[in-house]
């Protein structure tokens, strides 16, 4: 049985090399995690540097029914929220009833674009400790096989300790990879949630300012007036339905009362005069 001799002046590179082949999957996981994190960080940093001061101008144009100018203003900005509002406005000009559905569709696609590769970070944060533990278990198995072959009489405490710390290197490396990867995943997830709230707020403001076409008068009305008209129509229909049900119940009740009365009224029996004299 042969184990490496511990050198007090061993640097980090030499120490990691003692971990064996089980370190290579951890090297690959750490490399992928670094690439994904910096790529996503640069993407979110680009969003943060772009302000939403242009949104007030777009909303003002929409309230003035200048839809083409509002869409052109959105297309002049490279912000993802501007892209969502532009696509939503183009559909809203043709079919105002599809405005909300189009905003939801384009918004979800934009959110998915910023959430991409985040599950990969979560996977690396979960699998890295397992890979490290696997390396430790395999190293311990190899060490005890060496002890079995060499015999208990030739066991050296120094060699035994050397084999144990070499096996534990992979567990330490797995934890070193997993902890920063998990922190990066949580940070990027919080940025996605913040962007989702910002996108939802901008879309709600855009849809509130956008007029809708009434199906009865073909006049442009705001969303609040349409909901008010719908509630008024619904209450009127409910009132007419209640009145018709009450009238039908009254008619049925009168019919049920008239039948026993007619059956109960019978002609009076004529008594013969002879019986009366008696």
Concise account of the structure shown:
The protein is mostly helical and 278 residues long. Helices cover 78% and strands 1% of the residues.
- Terminal Cα span: 144 Å
Overall structural class, as computed from helix and strand content, comes to: mainly alpha
The number of helical segments is 10
Q: Helix amount, in percent?
A: over 70%
Tell me the radius of gyration: 40 Å
Strand order of the largest sheet: 1-2
Biggest sheet, in brief? 2 strands, antiparallel
User: Average pLDDT across residues?
Assistant: 76
The string of secondary-structure elements, in order, is HHHHHHHHEEHH
The coarse silhouette is elongated
Count of the separate structural domains: 2
Strand content is under 5%
Extract low-pLDDT stretches: 1-6, 213-229, 259-265
Number of DSSP-assigned strands: 2
Topology:
Blueprint: H1 12-17, H2 23-49, H3 54-63, H4 67-75, H5 80-94, H6 99-115, H7 118-150, H8 157-209, E1 212-213, E2 220-221, H9 223-264, H10 273-277
Antiparallel strand pairs: 1-2
Helix pairs in contact: 2-7, 2-8, 3-4, 3-8, 4-5, 5-6, 6-8, 7-8
